Amino acid sequence: MLMVGLTGGIGAGKSTVTSVLAETGAVIVDADKIAREVVEPGTPGLAMLVAEFGEGILDADGALDRAALAALAFVDAERTSALNAITHPLIGERTAELFGSAPQDAIVVHDMPLLVEGGMTPGYHLVIVVDTPADIRLTRLVEQRGMPEADARARMARQATDEQRRAVADVLVDNSGERDAVVELTRVLVEFRLVPFEHNLRTGTPVIGDRTVVPFRPEWAAEAERAIARLRHVVGGLAPRIDHVGPTSVVGLDAPDIIDIQVTVRDEAGADAALHALTGAGWVQDRSSLRPLLHWCDPVRPLEVTILAEDDPEHAFALLMAEVIGDDPAAREEYSQILRRADREETRRWERTRCRAARF
Question: Which of 3.30.460.10, 2.40.40.20, 3.40.50.410, 3.40.30.10 is the CATH number of 213-359?
Answer without folding.
Answer: 3.30.460.10
